[in-house]
Amino acid sequence: MSQPKKKKKQRIIRPKATFCGLVVWSALGILLIPLVLITLLATLRLFTQVPIFSRAMLSMLMGVLIYALIHFFVYQSTVFYVLAHEFTHAIFAIFSGAQVKKIKVASRGGWVELTQSNFIIDLAPYFFPLYSILLAVLYFIANRFWDLTGYYFLFFFLLGASLCFHYLSNWEILKIEQPDMKITGKIFGIIFVLLANLLFLNIIIMFVFLDYVNLATLVDNFRDAYRVINIF
Q1: What is the DSSP code (8-state) at residue 6?
Q2: What is the rounded distance in angstroms from the CA atom of residue 232 to the CA atom of residue 230?
Q3: In a domain, 171, yes or no
Q4: What is the domain extent for residue 134?
Q5: Is 6 part of a structural domain of the chain?
Q6: Stronger pLDDT, 230 or 187, i.e. the higher one
């Protein structure tokens, strides 16, 4: 079974991290911990508000289980991970106003050459599930032109598998020292990535279960979670 290799240094123009800078970033990360706890409680409540035992959710959980078995006992696709990783850097760079000069993807790692970067661009691949987002967008667009009712449960299966791929692949890669976190340090990087992953999971669950939850539901969940955390 192949293991993710350490990525080559990301080719971007940015200053080197300083000790004082790492201290500040780490302090900011610690300040985010209460927000992580609030988001975690809101996420757990959200899962109680969608049909856990519906065929759609069971298909999604089956996708999670099947990919997890493949990941741990059969094969880990390094190329697919590196492809998503570098293109996510590029996508967030474009939306941040930076220019993408070159992208390199290979089985042993990759890099993206940008004109500038920031901590969102650096950390984006660790919290933005590119394949899951693309799958959802393509499915809902295609469903407007063709009746994909017969493929509904396949969509949920692949959504679960792609989310599991995102989480497990990043878990593996974060065991290795990452250049993406050299500016902010691992304390801020990991706390921020955890928070952002939970937020994106809320958004994904909301969109695929719009018949049961909506944006107002998420707001209420976060408000109630804040009250619970505030008690302590």
Answers
A1: P
A2: 5
A3: yes
A4: 22-72+120-231
A5: no
A6: 187
Listed in sequence order, the residues at least 6 apart from 74 whose beta carbon sits closer than 8 Å to its beta carbon are 1
% of the chain at pLDDT higher than 90: 59
Tokens of 62: 């089956």
Residue 1 scores a pLDDT above 70: no
What would the mean pLDDT of 27-55 be, rounded to a whole number? 94
Run of H or E residues at 73: helix 55-73
As a whole number of angstroms, the distance between CA 65 and CA 133 comes to: 19
Per-residue pLDDT at 34: 95
pLDDT on residue 7:
47
Cα angle 118, 98, 21; round to 5: 15
Q: Which two tokens stand for residue 92?
A: 């967030």
Summarised one tens digit per residue, pLDDT across range 188-225 is 999 999 999 999 999 999 988 988 999 999 999 999 99
Determine how many CB atoms are found less than 10 A away from the CB of residue 180.
Answer: 25
* Total structural domains within the chain: 1
